[in-house]
Amino acid sequence: MKKIVHLLPNSVYTVRFIDFMNKYFPKEEHDFLVVCEGNSFKVNKQDNVFFIKKKGKDMFFFHKELFIADKIILHGIFTEIVPVLFIRLGILKKCYWVIWGGDLYYHETRVKSFRSNLGEFMRRIIIKNMGVIITNNEGEYELARKWYPTKARHMKAFYPSPIVYEDLDFDDDYKEKSLITILVGNSANPTNNHIEVLNKLLKFKDEDIEIIAPLSYGEKEWAKKVIETGEKLFGDKFKPLVDFLPPAEYARILNSVDIAVFNHNRQQALGNIKTLLYLGKKVYIRKDVTTWDYFERIGITVYDTYGMDKLSFEEFVYMEESLKAKNREIIGREFSEERCRELWEIIFNS
């Protein structure tokens, strides 16, 4: 029997991914090691789920799992696991790196210091010796090859959305029809570039709008700055979301959105974007991120944040119904649970 070991951070995607894997694949073949600290999301207790803390007993079990594994799926290469991988270079050929975003763009976003330089030195060697890189967006794989001297093969897969698309059929009577709800960003991460978006939207402040900004996780100081700016510019029309919401409740909020603006300078918030496109919402992203090229390649219509300054309010809001329907059809096909299962099955059997 083959043994596949997953190293995962503790995140909302971890919760959904483990439940998804145990639904479609044999539990005895997969062990899930939740090793990274961070936001505390409740992962269901299951026989093949283990939480690894920095203590002797856990670390012994952790290294043993890596040794006996036939495949190791690295769900992101974050700071906590870099030293472990660096001292065990022999295991890297059986490692599959699922790019999360921040782990790839650390190359550009890190604050240079002795510690980060050392970490980047180790990461370069790790990625160079990696067996496979997993993305659903080939642009991210090409960036990895550009920034790091790796010959890792590329395989395609994506994470099941925490929000199940089939459960998104809501009643339309959720708000006043005249009110236009604008979603800005997906987290309290500065890469959202919230302030720039809020300034772009300022010319619409007298329209019948409300602006929602999810700020429940990320950097607290940045969240504070965004809230202060939003309330200063838009008053009570600005509504920050500071508490983490269950997926079903968050999905209902996304359904109330008319326009979403994601001004990230890299691929990010893909789960939110896919859900909004499935719901038929108009989505703005930056044209210079790999997400734009990917959506263009599969036929999805999104709009460029750089062009928002030149739009009237009517142009900013309007989107043809046929394009909404096309986006929904493509998202439903390309990111279905069945498609997700098929791609992971190919990886596990490769």
Describe the protein.
The chain is α/β, with parallel strands linked by helices and 350 residues long. It is built from 14 helices and 13 strands. The chain has a 7-stranded parallel beta sheet with strand order 3-2-1-4-5-6-7, with helices on both faces. A 6-stranded parallel beta sheet has the order 10-9-8-11-12-13, with helices on both faces. The protein starts with a strand and ends with a helix.
Summarize this entry quickly.
This protein has 350 residues and is of the alpha/beta class.
List the helices and strands and how they pair.
Elements: E1 4-9, H1 12-24, E2 30-36, E3 49-51, H2 56-68, E4 71-75, H3 82-86, E5 95-98, H4 102-109, H5 114-128, E6 132-134, H6 138-147, E7 153-155, E8 180-184, H7 194-201, E9 209-214, H8 220-234, E10 238-241, H9 247-256, E11 259-262, H10 270-278, E12 282-285, H11 290-298, E13 303-304, H12 313-317, H13 321-334, H14 337-349
Parallel strand pairs: 1-2, 1-4, 2-3, 4-5, 5-6, 6-7, 8-9, 8-11, 9-10, 11-12, 12-13
Helix pairs in contact: 7-8, 10-13
